[in-house]
Every structure is written in structure tokens, then in C-alpha cells.
């Protein structure tokens, strides 16, 4: 893991001009579409859940909702994932999990995301149903079967085991590495 993190730290430490050059080489229009993101991530053969997860990631990074990720959104996303504060990451996780945008995460939304993450990472250690049950047993204080942002953040912060599990499952550094590798590959060609 040491090399894994240090290579991403090195990536972030590169100057903004270099990042901008990479971004523009990958997307000369200055914008990344959902299709381009899926192409970068080599999404061929992924399950419907995995594809839906990438859609959700894209839409949470597309902060202005215009259907594109521009350079500012791109840098903000990378910074959040690699250097963001715990509360910022938890808010982002919540937004990602809340697929219908109603301000609450229900068990089905959470399970769908965890299945998709496992399909993408090819890591099936714990069944998503067990993860969801554990989370709801510990942090659904009112037993409603759904979590508000406040419940989610305070519950994750109060239960280090859940925070650790979320951090590991939501680690998107492999996605960023694929994007950067893809950009470098194109730069070489």
C-alpha cells in the first residue's frame, strides 16, 4: 500500500499546469463526458450495478449538473478523494449512496452501491447484505430503515469499524490510477 499511496501523492503534488496539460490531452474539449469516463475505466463487460455506480460517481463529481466534468470539478474530485477531510468524504459518500436524491439512504440504495463496488474491485470478501445489516444495526438510531446525512456522519464517526469499512470500500484510488495511466498511455502514443 505504501507505493500505492506515494504514487498518488506524487500525482497530486505535480503542479497545476502539468495536471491541466494532462486533462486537456485526454479531453481536448476541456470536458469529460460519462461515456469518456467509462471508456477510460475500460467498463466493457461490467455488470449493470457497476455501470450504474460509475454513473453515480460521475454525477456526484459533476458538481454543476451540466453533464460534463470540467477541469475544476476534476481537480476537486481528486483532491477530495486523496486529501479530503473525514466530514467532506462522508458527505460525498452520502451523496453517492443517495441515488434517488431524497436526502436519505435506504438499505436497497446502499446494497446496490456495495454490490457495484465489489463488481468493479473484484473483491467479494463480505456479502453486501451483511455490510448493510451491520451499518443499519449500528447507526440507524430510529430503526426507520433509512439514514439521514446527520445520522450517517455521526454514526460513521462514532463507530470506527464502520468508518474503516467505508473508507476501504470507497477507496477510488484505483480508478484515479487507471485514469492517470490512460492519460500517460495516450501521451506516449
Total beta strand runs: 4
Count of helical regions: 11
Q: List segments where confidence is low: pLDDT < 50 over at least 5 consecutive residues.
A: 1-6, 183-187
End-to-end gap: 29 Å
* Overall mean confidence score, pLDDT: 78
Helix and strand pattern = HHEHHEHHEHHEHHH
Across the major sheet, the strand order is 1-2
Give an account of the 3D structure.
- The longest helix is centred in the last third of the chain and has 16 residues, at 173-188.
- The two termini are 29 Å apart.
- Residues 1-6 and 183-187 have low confidence and may be disordered.
- By secondary structure, this protein is mainly α.
- It contains 11 helices and 4 strands; from the N terminus they run H-H-E-H-H-E-H-H-E-H-H-E-H-H-H.
- The protein is globular and about 50 Å long.
- The relative contact order is 0.13.
Amino acid at each position: 500500500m505504501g507505493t500505492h499511496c506515494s504514487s498518488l501523492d506524487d500525482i497530486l503534488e505535480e503542479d497545476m499546469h502539468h495536471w491541466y496539460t494532462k486533462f486537456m490531452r485526454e479531453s481536448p474539449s476541456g470536458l469529460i463526458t460519462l461515456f469518456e469516463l467509462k471508456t477510460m475505466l475500460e467498463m466493457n463487460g461490467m455488470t449493470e450495478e457497476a455501470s450504474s455506480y460509475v454513473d453515480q460517481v460521475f454525477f456526484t463529481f459533476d458538481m454543476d449538473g451540466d453533464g460534463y466534468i470540467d477541469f475544476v470539478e476534476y481537480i476537486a474530485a481528486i483532491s477530495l478523494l486523496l486529501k479530503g477531510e473525514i466530514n467532506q468524504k462522508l458527505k460525498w459518500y452520502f451523496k453517492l449512496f443517495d441515488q434517488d436524491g431524497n436526502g436519505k439512504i435506504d438499505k436497497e440504495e446502499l446494497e446496490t452501491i456495495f454490490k457495484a463496488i465489489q463488481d468493479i474491485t473484484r473483491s467479494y470478501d463480505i456479502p453486501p447484505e451483511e455490510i448493510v445489516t451491520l451499518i443499519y444495526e449500528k447507526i440507524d438510531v430510529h430503526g426507520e430503515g433509512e439514514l439521514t446525512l446527520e445520522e450517517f456522519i455521526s454514526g460513521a464517526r462514532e463507530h470506527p469499524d464502520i468508518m474503516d469499512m467505508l473508507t476501504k470500500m470507497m477507496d477510488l484510488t484505483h480508478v484515479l490510477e487507471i485514469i492517470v495511466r490512460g492519460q500517460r498511455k495516450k501521451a506516449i502514443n
